[in-house]
Amino acid sequence: MSRLAPDGPAAAGASDPRERRRVVLATIVGTTVEWYDFFIYASAAGLVFGQLFFEPAGSSLGTLLAFGSVGVSFLFRPLGAFVAGHLGDKYGRRVVLVLTLVLMGVATALIGLLPTYAQIGVAAPVLLVLLRILQGISAGGEWGGAVLMACEHAPVARRGLFGASPQVGVPLGLLLASGVLGIMNAVAPGDAFLTWGWRVPFLLSVVLIGIGYWVRRSVEESPVYVEIAQRAETTRQPLLQLFRKHTPLVIVAALVFAGNNAVGYMTTGGYIQRYASDPAGPVGLDRGPVLWAVTASAVVWLVSTWFAGAVSDRLGRRTTYAIGFVVQLAGVLALFPLVNGGTFGSLLLGLIFLSVGLGLTYGPQAALYAELFPASIRFSGVSISYAIGSILGGAFAPAIATALVQATGTTAAVTMYLAGMTVIGLAATLVLRDRTGIPLGPDHEELQAASPIYGLARA
Predict the structure, then answer these.
(1) Major facilitator superfamily (MFS) profile domain spans which residues (predicted)?
(2) Does residue 458 fall inside a structural domain?
(3) Is residue 454 included in any domain, yes or no?
(4) Using CA atoms, how far apart are residues 380 and 375, in angstroms rounded to an integer?
(5) Using the 8-state DSSP alphabet, how is residue 220 labeled?
(6) What is the C-alpha separation between 378 and 234, in angstroms, rounded?
(7) What is the pLDDT of residues 126-156, one digit of tens each?
């Protein structure tokens, strides 16, 4: 693996250790709040939304529709990515991060106030889906900005570690969401949870958004964007430039993420929570232990994500990813045999094993994506690749898994589906050249424009 020359002025702008710590804190806090909001919905979809908002459809179809509403938001992530990418490449990373945070928080709090189907009829699921769409738009724009703030402020030799800071916000969001739901399940058990207990985690978002807003407003703009703006070199049509020159790269990058995302949404999409706690299902665990098992697995996911980001600075992004996908495949093959063991211990072991692979294929993603695209269109490139990857991967993974089990009566088909997505992610990784340490500043646009896909010389 080669170490390429560091950035010039942009690197100097990133050299203040105090500002770096502030950026790391801002990206972790902001992405944690964003994904707490996003995962609270997915967990509630698996636990209560089928009964409260899709009641006339019956238990099986209601659950499928609830998971479908989780996936609908992914269809609108590209819209958020397009808008945020355009604004981020023209007006800066920080303003987009603040806007997406507020949009997500408002949508989440309003879900906590929604009347149910029993109270207002069909308007309830319609309003629920509309608010979920707003969450999707926000999530589509959030990730790219957080990634670039972290990676463009980072020293070259520690870009993977710094880039892992927005990545750990995802398992932290899951940890926080599952933990709060677990607490509310204990505070308001049984019918009380269905009546009001599930609403509290959504309303808590108001407090978290205030904290996230304050932290994100305190950081300086990305030094790479500052240098571009000072030169008056912002791209007039970044989206057009991206698709005209880099469409194959967008597709390959999206497939890398899809291989991780489909598997990750077994927990973040609420599927395992529903499957393991269904009284009529083969596992039949109580809701509380299931939520605590997911919470514990989120801790493992967090640690392995941070570890993978740091290791990728030494091994390279491509090698770290390849190892991660192999470990993830092993976790996929072991997941349902362990979950179907029907005990808290076997469920916990299956989720922990899976979380190690998920972290290894998620920690290096921020640095990998930042190093794939030229500075002038980088926000658009990373945001749109991420959004497309989430559609191909996690968007309907819980609904697909539910449909496969209903059709076949076994989880073997789900295992095959997840294994197939993992292999696709590995294959996409292996067609990319390793660009670990490539300069990110605008002085090196020509170097950055060389295609990292084997067999393509230039974009």
Answers:
(1) 23-437
(2) no
(3) no
(4) 10
(5) P
(6) 11
(7) 999 999 899 888 887 777 778 888 888 888 9
